[in-house]
Amino acid sequence: MEPNEQYDFALSFAGPDRVFARGLAEALKADGHRVFFDEYHQAELWGTNLFEKLLDVYGKRSRYVVVVVSRHYLDSVWTRWELRSALETVLQGRDDAVLPLRLDDTELPGLPRSTAWIDVREDGETDVELLTRLLAGKLAAATPVRRRRVLALGLGGVAVAATGTYFGTRLFARAEPGSELWHRGFESACFPVVNGADVVLSLRDGGVVGLGQDDGAQRWRVDLGGAMTGPCSVVRGLVLAGRAMTQNRGRLTAIEDGGAVRWSLDTDGLPACHREARDGTVLVGTNTGWVLRVDERSGQVVEQVRVSRQVNDVVEQQGFVYSATAVDGVQVHADGKQAWSRTTAGAVQGLATDANHLYATVGITRQGASSGQAVRYDAITGELGWQHSFDALVQAAPVVVRGQLVVSDIGGTVHSLDVESGAVRWQQNVGAAAQSRTTWDGDALYVGTRRGLAVLDVRSGAVRWTKDVTTAVPTTAHWAARPVLGDRAVFLGYGDMQTSSTNGDLYALVR
User: Fold this and answer.
1) Which among 115, 200, 102 has a CA at the least distance from the CA of 488?
2) What is the Cα Rg of the chain in Å?
3) CB contact at 8 A, 398 and 361
4) Which one of 30, 139, 242, 300 is at 20 to 30 Å from 151 when CA atoms are compared?
5) 466: number of CA atoms within 13 Å, CB side?
6) How far apart (Å, rounded) are the C-alpha atoms in residues 149 and 90?
7) How many angstroms separate the CA atoms of 482 and 439, rounded?
8) 8 Å CB contact between 149 and 95
């Protein structure tokens, strides 16, 4: 064990799964292992900065991090931070292993594709005994010269899967990345999201459908009426779908897993963007400049502020609500009152945040010429940190990834900028315009383009693989939506992406 490691195993779990985690912790402790289980360390944790403490424990002081994955896991800010802390050190070359223990089919974002899992779900007592023996064997097998290891343990039977091959009731070779699992066409633009086991689409005909990840078969449909206003979003297991009911009136509907409608909210203007926010609320931005805070349980508006004439993106950090607007730059409010604002050279396309900063991408079109910018501000004061210019128009929102700001442009170049200085770390041309926000998973970036999909290495920008779904782009309105990730596949919406479109396709591709 390295000098700064104190625990053999650290357990990461959500509150509803505490009984299972406690049983495993007690079995490991009884077997003589050093275990970090929060109940054993209440005095140590009391009064500390938990973000720093958990980063230290899960990122530096534990040989293995056992992650108990269930539908509850991703609802907690603390479990997401624990997982992020563990994955950060793994992907920076540290030799700790992350061992996800799957209680259901919930996807674990950020886990690299090379994964082995163990399924022991049937008998609770036997499961704990078996897991204890396996973990003890894993620890004993570790050598002084250790390699990076990522194992996934799944509860249910005694099946083991490793790096693309499944050992159990069936055995098959993993398909090559980019291979098509299935494909469906729709008379609609296709902006997919993943919610649990479903791929969800909002359709032009007024419907929202849930498709099975494995085969694309329709599992449920709910008819909402109106016209789609853009992509759905997923907030703590709820699918949010925006519809245009009249020219100036919209409706946001919250749909539970399986297609049951929880609530609908009529809006002044069309709901253009919606994001998860604090205290069980959702932030909604409209094309008439309103930002609404909505209770996710009831659909009641608890706060509303008019910030501009059109809101393109909205995000919350440390009690501040940041709005990307089409004409009035970045607008920021707290407790319903303006905190600060900054004008920009063009429409703010999207926002991203880290602990202390706000990042914005700006699209600039003047006298027939187009370009773009990425800008960093102090999240509290709005002080300008740096500004970086691009030669091509930027229409995509930025993504903060491992100390980098990743931005794509319609010239087909993906840019990685250092978040501290704004300096270029790397640039990669992906061969076609990229207009959607990049998706990050582990050490891979998924970039939707006008030809299909490009997958890049996070550190270097090197192209890992590409998938063209067309060889001749029909019109300038044809492009790929933001790629979304499922258990085995990356889902890519492609086609005419105008919301009035009658031409779209959804592809499920091997990750």
Assistant:
1) 115
2) 23
3) yes
4) 30
5) 17
6) 8
7) 7
8) yes
Counting Cβ atoms within 10 Å, is residue 102 exposed (0-12), middle (13-18) or buried (19+)? buried
Cα atoms found within 13 Å of the Cα of residue 264, Cβ hemisphere only: 14
Structure tokens at 172: 């098959």
3-state secondary structure 383-431: CEEEEEEECCCCCCCCEEECCEEEEECCCCEEEEEECCCCCEEEEEECC
**Tokens coding 95:** 């030799």
Q: Which residues does 485 contact at the CB level (< 8 Å), separation at least 6?
A: 107, 109, 194, 439, 441, 446, 491, 511
Per-residue pLDDT tens digits of the chain, which is 511 residues long: 344 558 888 888 887 778 888 888 988 988 888 999 988 888 888 887 777 777 778 877 888 888 888 777 777 667 777 777 666 655 455 444 678 877 777 767 766 655 566 654 543 444 677 788 888 877 776 533 333 333 444 433 333 333 222 222 222 234 688 999 999 999 888 999 999 889 999 998 889 999 999 889 999 999 999 988 889 999 999 999 999 998 889 999 999 988 999 999 999 999 999 999 999 999 999 999 999 999 999 999 999 999 998 999 999 988 999 999 999 999 999 998 999 999 999 999 999 999 899 999 999 998 888 999 999 999 999 999 999 999 999 999 999 998 999 999 999 999 999 999 999 999 999 999 999 999 998 889 999 999 999 999 999 999 999 999 887 777 777 889 999 998 789 999 998 877 666 788 999 999 8
Fill in the amino acid letter for 9: F
Name residue 328's beta-bridge partners: none
C-alpha span between 323 and 342 (Å, rounded) = 11
Half-sphere exposure of 75 (CA within 13 A, CB side): 16
Strand ranges (DSSP E) for 318-356? Answer: 320-325, 330-334, 337-342, 347-353
